[in-house]
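User: Sequence recovery, please. Input:
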């Protein structure tokens, strides 16, 4: 598996958006195509930001997953938490094979190289797993009607 910056390729981004919509539609039905297009717009325009990136996992030249590091996430009143690991997604047919773990480690490595002292993420369903691998719970809150947990760690 090769991890690299996501190519600025609209078809590749559209594939990721499709995975995101499929994955989140039951829990966050308001995350629609327009939301995801807006999320990936800085990348599509080639303007990711100093501490932002979209990393992609490729196996045999096929896209199998992606993860982002962003300065600001969807949560209101959380500007004091930055940067965020966000939008980690794996091809639905390949989940459970360690691709997400490799993507997460690659995002943490990006943060280490950027000299980020602490990185954040939020989850609606994986808090226990993240805590087992070294993340610390910061807070829980409701987001779009769903209980989420914000976690952090040193990269």
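Assistant: Recovered sequence (155 residues):
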């Amino acid at each position: 598996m090769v991890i690299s910056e996501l190519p600025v390729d609209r078809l590749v981004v559209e594939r990721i958006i499709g995975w995101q919509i499929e994955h989140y539609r039951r829990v966050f039905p308001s995350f629609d195509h327009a939301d995801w297009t807006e999320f990936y717009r800085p990348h599509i325009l080639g303007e990711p930001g100093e501490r932002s990136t979209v990393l992609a996992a490729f196996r045999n030249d096929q896209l199998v997953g992606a993860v982002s590091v962003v300065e600001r996430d969807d949560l209101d009143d959380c500007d004091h938490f930055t940067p965020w690991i966000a939008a980690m997604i794996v091809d639905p047919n390949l989940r459970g094979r360690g691709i997400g773990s490799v993507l997460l480690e690659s995002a943490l490595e990006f943060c280490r190289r950027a000299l980020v002292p602490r990185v954040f993420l939020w989850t609606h369903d994986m808090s226990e797993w993240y805590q087992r691998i070294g993340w610390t719970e910061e807070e829980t809150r409701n987001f779009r009607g769903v209980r989420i947990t914000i976690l952090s760690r040193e990269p």
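The mean pLDDT is 93.
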